Amino acid sequence: MAPKQIRVMVLNDMEKLDRTLFRLDQGFELQFRLGPTLQGKHVHVYTNYPAEGELFERHKFHALDWINPTGRQDDSDKFCILDLKISGSYQYYFGHGDEEKSGGGYIVVDPVLRVGADNHILPLDCISIQTYLSKCLGPLDEWLDRLRVAKETGYNMIHFTPLQMLGESRSCYSLADQLELNPDFSPAGQAYNWTDVGNLVEKMKNEWNMLCITDVVYNHTAANSKWIEKHPECGYNLVNSPHLKPAWVLDRALWHVTCAIADGKYKDRGLPALIQDHQHLHAIRGVLWQDVFPRIKLWEFFQVKVEPAVEQFRALLQSGAKPGRSKTDGKQQLKIIQDPQYRRFGNTVDMDSALETFVPHGSSPGAIEDCCNWLRRRLDELNNEQFHEIKHHQEQATNCIDGTVSYERLADHGPKLGPVTRKHPLVTRYFTFPFEEATLEQDLELMNQPEKSCHFLAHNGWVMADDPLRNFAEPGSNVYIRRELICWGDSVKLRYGNRPEDCPYLWAHMQKYTEITAKHFVGVRLDNCHSTPLHVAETMLAAARAVRPNLYVIAELFTGSELIDNVFVNRLGITSLIREAMSAGDSHEEGRLVYRYGGEPVGAFLQPSLRPLVPSIAHAMFLDITHDNECPIQIRSVYDSLPSSAIVSMACCATGSTRGYDELVPHQISVVSEERFYSKWNPQAKPSSPDEVNLQSGIIGGKLALNRLHQELAAKGFNQVFVDQVDEDIVAVTRHCPSTHQSVVAVCRTAFKNPKHHRYTDEVPPMCIPGKIEEVVLEARTVERQAGSYKKDERSINGMPEYTVEIKEHIQMKDSKVVRQAGVTSRGPSEYVQEIVFEQLTPGSVIAFRVSLDPKSQELVGVLRNHLIQFNPLYKAGSLSDPNTPDILKSTLTQIMSKMTLADMNILLFRCDEEEKEDGGGCYNIPGWTALKYGGLQGLLSVMADIRPKNDLGHPFCDNLRQGDWMIDYVSNRLMMRGGTLAEVGQWFQAMFTYLKHIPRYLIPCYFDAILVGAYTTALDATFKQMSSFVQNGSSFVKLLALGSVQMCGVGRFPALPPLSPALTDVPYRVNEITKQKEQCCVSLAAGLPHFSAGIFRCWGRDTFIALRGLMLVTGRHLEARNIILGFAGTLRHGLIPNLLGEGVGARFNCRDAVWWWLQCIQDYCTMVPNGNDILQCPVSRMYPTDDSKPLPPGTVDQLLYEVIHEAMERHMQGIEFRERNAGPQIDRNMRDEGFNIVAKVNPDTGFVYGGNRFNCGTWMDKMGESERARNKGIPATPRDGSAVEIVGLCKSTLRWLVELHKQGLFPYNTVTIHKDGKQLSVSYEEWDRKIQENFEKMFYVSHDLNDPNEKHPELVHKRGIYKDSYGASSPWCDYQLRPNFTIAMVVAPELFTVEHAWEALNVTEEKLLGPLGMKTLDPDDMVYCGVYDNSLDNDSYNLARGFNYHQGPEWLWPIGYFLRAKIYFAKKLGKETYDKTVYLVKNVLSRHYVHMERSSWKGLPELTNENGQFCPFSCETQAWSLAAVLEVLHDL
Fold first, then answer.
1. Which residues are catalytic?
2. CB neighbours (10 Å) of residue 575?
3. Could you count the other beta carbons within 10 Å of the beta carbon of residue 66?
């Protein structure tokens, strides 16, 4: 069972996609998901796709329900579903809040066509269609004899031009009655009807396996249609469209010129009836400008009668009238109102605007007279402007008339109409005139008699380069007066209006016509689609689909723009757009069209069944010739018919032709004038017989073979295409089947020029075809024969008897006449190539080979596919079982990977270059491109995720795979050197790659991808199984973040953690490769990749414990978290935890905050882990039991963890003061001497921990100046000495917890004992806790009270309603800087804050510091703020040089986690409305992190960004605490 195909449409705010085409198949599921701009908002998605059990109504929309599979608060996985079961065009739109529509678009669902008595499916790409001019089929009882030609030539679909009664011009597309069958189809004594046609169509479907479609013509009706005489309102006439009156007047005048020329009246002016040269054209211009235009005075229709207007104005002035302000908007501009009836001088003046514009200086008669004169002058000017405007129209009309006459009567490629007569007028009439001939003056009088002028109906036609979305007959268009319409004088343009109520008869008539058509035919061709009003076609097609849901709709669009094409395809649900091979000027362009109109590249990747919905181009119906095209025999040569047809037949789309092409009819079969009948089928027909054809006629025999081949390729899934331009005339098209890896290669030598007159080279380049040629499917060429020469027959449409096709099918290479030899060459062990040398590939010949992989490759691909079925059932097709399966492949990969630890997964999936180098390796480097980000699978998958959806097989990554086995070997060898389960996975890869290496190189990228995707997804499943239920049941975003835990937590070649106490249970051990001794191998946490991943710089106390809760506790890695906590505990010295760990031996105790983060993690461990309090009783091996002891081996001095905790607290209360060991440039080349002095104490009055000095930085904002040039070397940018706000919060959190533990009997101490001035003092934990509680808000809150007694430095306050960053800094102004650190205290010790103050401070922070991904580290209003970090810049700027502004503006990611968690905590306290708004903010912010992670090749979140989220090249690409902080937010939600 193939997996269900699911496409995902990501909705983005304000994205309107009505010009983007999305095509889907029935049976697909469409999921709408929220893009980052919409996550967190209450979005509603509406569609007019009918709800279950309802009928489609275009204007009826319903909302879709959201499904949240993880039931969680984040929106990354939320979606709503459309189960697509009905074909057609459907609209969707979405909105949120007050915006009902903030985006939308269309989806087009393709129909399913069924054929044959058994109703089997005919795939769209299998279609081979042939067009028939219906009037050339003769009586209905002779149709099958004529249509049999299509059946015997291998077509499976017929397109009939309209079958209705034709108008008097006999054009196939000018219909006299849309509801009546053409009476020509009924012989004397018979009266056939639509049912008879329907029966014939049904018979063809069941017995011949052929489907039939026909045209629908909505734009016009024949000028002699009886119904339009009764219902003239259905056209554009002078009553309902008075704007056409001037154009009609010009049209009548031109008719009278025609009559005069025909009657010889202009002979003496050099204008005879027979127009033969440019002198005559010049004479026509003279007649127009001297006689016609002055006589009809068209400008008068647009002018104002000046005197009456002036008199009306004078009367108003005399009566003291004032302008109606509301009407004129107070603008002084004279407005002329166009007469809606378009009478001569019918335009009027808007008197309000006249009164506004011309104001008299007083009320005296003189003042009024002046005013009237001003108006008179202005009206004369306006009339003059109109005169010139019409003059421009007349100039254009003259040019268009000139162009038409020149084409119709002079041009070699034109119809050469001969003398001007009433039958062949000078120019086609634009309007009907159903009255007797009279003088022009008499004609013009009829214009004002509505009962007559309603019958002057505008003809239809087309306009060069017109906007197809505009109706050229509506007001506002000047096409008729400018004579720009290329007019069809036999057809009246129909006027539908905007809705059925505007013209009820016409809409009802056309709907009935549509329903008759849909009842009997499986599809329709929309004639003249680009100028059919869209809303009309939409309504009609909806009616057609109500009759036949799987309606096949094709159209030809001449809009010149793919975007406008898409508007038509979307709104009408067009299935296939007709594309013409005749549009190609050479074989190269013809080949390009094949490539453009369908199929994937050969060797394309297998796409996942759930994937993004991507825009497509419309499905093509690619025709070698349409019934509108000129004859290719005249334009190219008779020899080109076969090869061009072959090129078209090899296209992976619907293809087809027009009757007459295959018989080699050497002229265009005119849709207007052709009245002869098509020839019938007779297998015994003589070549010279004009009214019968068989397989020897023209190229019919070749076309049969090509149609069969086209249908076989589509039916059997040959959906990959490669087009090779062998030389200027030879095109080779390959169609490849991705499951069997069979190919068919057609080599076509075109003959755009006739070989009889054009010298073609005899040198045909040899061709290399990879694989084994099984057979020649066909070889064919057009040859001359003795059968007389072509003579146009009177009764039948006949072709050229002197040509036929010489064809052989299904032969072996040795029997080919076209190929001289086919040598087998082998390129490398797995490349099997046949070189073809051509003997007789003459212009006009075609040869097609069927190619398989060589037998060995075929077998190996089959076995490989068999082993891939465990990942995707689609590989069943073409799979073979392997009798010699290696043992490692006998178990599934899932079974092997179930034995792996998460530390193993770190190696399998990740490890950056620095980590790999520690083991003597490195990440794979693609020459000429770049190195991969990881040595593990993620490094490869990140690149393949970009290549796969685009099938970018030309990418250097794919090139590298095709050129050699280096990357393949890298993957397996890297794992096999590891030992253990990793080596087993390596062996599994090696075994799979053994097959891979022996298949053709062009297939290696797609199968390498399949193996890796399978292994990667299996590894992810195994990974998440070992994590917490929060991760297992979490959203995609949660899982992506949890992978960060695997990314950051690993075991290097050298253990990064100091050894744990031997008395501790469950500690992992391994044997050291070099010493062969047993050693501990605990997981350690890297701070960030790539800079902090290996060696001494991997582990940092602060980073580890900021990240540990998110990456290890939330993900359920409790044991590893315990080991890290205890490992660091063993290095406690001076009451501090090291910043840089250096395995404990090289530790630096130069930070004041790491110990508090460590204590916070122990608290989190106790509260989050089942039986977490047990950790307090775990043994800790003290490396430094006293401050000055040498590092001791594990087990020498063991203490329980709770004793170490107590020591840390006691040491702080006692006061920590020491100088770092080895102080000086050997441990820090930038630090000044005073900076090595470390102080951390507790203020006895407030309980606040304080410390540091202005030459060191003891918190996470630890940038030390490095620039001698800017004189900031040795000066910290952010010393944050005094009491840093987050340390006070963390200390308070610890005290609260210890007091609680003591009450529960889990912690034996309730006081700390210190020695002061020789006396022993004790301070209880409760008292210390209380002091902080009482003083925090007083000392840290910057209140709005200007006289706040607690404010020491009111002069330094520049923002109120915030919390200070520190208290008691040596530079007091630093206390008042707005930074995001107080949000940390809010999360760990919310009890310190009053809710209202906290909320206000958070809002200021949001406004000032929140960036797209991170938090600004400093208020942008601060004078030293700079948001761009550049560590390489060394200049004179003290605040910038050598990255001095590291924490003075750039946006760090991890604080955003604390900011959002604080917002959530306090929002809950403020009620539902505030909480809901906050959840929206959180989701919206986090959606950006999700997008960043999805797109990041590191699959991580960076350490920091520059201002406004810009990329910072000096940042780690993925940072442990960034990932952890975001994961903790989701955990809180």
1. 527, 530, 628
2. 28
3. 16
